[in-house]
Amino acid sequence: MAVPNCAAKSAVCIALFAASVLAAMAPARAQEPYAVPQARVIVSGEGSVQAAPDFALLTVGATTQGVTAKAATDANSRAMSAVMTALRDAGIAPNDIQTEHFSVQPVYAPAGSFSGSQQKLSGFAVTDQVAVTVRQIDKVGDVLDRAITAGANAVGGVQFLHADLSKALDAARAAALADARRKAQLYAQAAGLALGAVSWVVEDQANVPQPRFAAVRMAAAPVPIAAGEDTLSVRITAGFDVAH
């Protein structure tokens, strides 16, 4: 490409040179193919499944009091020893029992009614609680009965959980994709298109149950526990190829 001799008129020279460059580039740009967007049908899909929990998590323990911290701790140790023996007798493995909470708190007597009176230390309270994993969910009631009978008086709720939540959701995922395909087929037929294969899938949301708690009453009668089932659901967005 020849550059014009524009020593005296530099501004005109630059303009002419730029115009010649753009003119040379124009044929190359004209040859570039236009990117046509690929045909797609994009839909959402939802699927759900009912699944029974696999195991339960309990919180059991004992609270004791004593005039001194040592007396309260000693009493608690005796109480918890009996509770732990009851748990083992119920078939709970040692690795399924873990200390969850231990505390030593002062206990004060109520203050007098006259002005300026102060609370007086009357003793100490010790609480020891363990988390217990019950892998045979039908034995939850029996485990609680044994622990309470042995002296557990600090019993929390029962949580029903799933050992492999992702695997339990697989059936819901398959149902969500089937729902998306059904919708895509409907849209494709209405538009006079032939539905092709799935091009991509995005899992938007998996709704998993929050841990369900069952309250436990301190009673002599057997503790009724019903695990029931949880609803697991999945929502996806999928893109399908189509052809005219």
Descriptive notes:
The protein contains 5 helices and 8 strands; from the N terminus they run αββαββαβααβββ. The chain is α+β, with helices and mostly antiparallel strands and 244 residues long. The chain folds into 2 domains: 40-51 and 166-211 and 227-243, Translation Initiation Factor IF3; 55-161, Protein of unknown function (DUF541), domain 2 (Alpha-Beta Plaits, 2-Layer Sandwich), CATH 3.30.70. The strands form 2 sheets. Strands 3-4-2-5-7 form a 5-stranded antiparallel beta sheet. Helix 2 (69-89) packs antiparallel against helix 3. It is elongated.
Keywords:
single chain; 244 residues; alpha+beta; Translation Initiation Factor IF3; Alpha-Beta Plaits; 2 domains; five-stranded antiparallel β-sheet; three-stranded antiparallel β-sheet; 32% helix
